[in-house]
Amino acid sequence: MTSKSIILIGPMATGKSTIGAALAKITKLPQVPMDRVRWYYYYKHGFSLEKELSIDSFTELLAYWKPFEVNAVQNILKEFPNSIIDFGAGHSYYVDHKQFEQVQSALKDFSNVILLLPCPNKKEALKICNERLKIKKQRDLEENEVLANKDFIEHKSNYKLAKHIVYTKDKTPEETALEIKKLISTPITIV
Predict the structure, then answer these.
(1) Is 97 inside a domain boundary?
(2) Which of 5, 11, 26, 106 is the most buried (most CB within 10 A)?
């Protein structure tokens, strides 16, 4: 399968949706923000709001969402070909090996899987993302949000799924989008 799709992955507040919108504008491909369409797939495959509301801890909530996240990734990739698809932070983070392999398999034919991070230094990247998230939420972050974002940045999932890593620090979304377009437009020469 050949796809023009560009998949953006990374931690919370790394700019996936914002850069996705800029990419959609310059590539003329439709943008599909996974965090906006995921609930349809969750409910379609047995998600229960009652069950979710009965879960006390953030860790248990993330675990409950995981099978639905895998299914959403698989279906969205199939149903939205030739699109800019920006994943939610959890959609590319899998501790469970089987779930990771399912998502890795779903992404295997996509050459444009871009991990967005502010910078290579993970500690600095976390600080930048958390500052952005705090501004977005207009409140101090809860400890579980900080720890989740730390996991999203430090865990191997994103790095294994990505075909490219693009750093965004000190760049506008438009500059980053142009960098991605140039990166994926460059033919690969095998010597």
Answers:
(1) yes
(2) 11
Q: Is residue 22 part of a domain?
A: yes
Tens digits of per-residue pLDDT, 117-158? 999 999 999 999 999 999 999 999 988 889 999 999 999 999
Widest pairwise Cα distance in the chain: 57
Which residues, listed in sequence order, are joined to residue 113 by a DSSP beta bridge? 7
Q: Please report, as a single letter, which amino acid is at residue 132.
A: R
Domain of 147: which CATH number?
3.40.50.300
Quick: pLDDT tens for 70-122: 999 999 999 999 999 999 999 999 999 999 999 999 999 999 999 999 999 99
Report how many domains make up the chain: 1
φ, ψ for residue 114, nearest 5 deg:
-110, 120
- pTM reported for the whole predicted model: 0.93
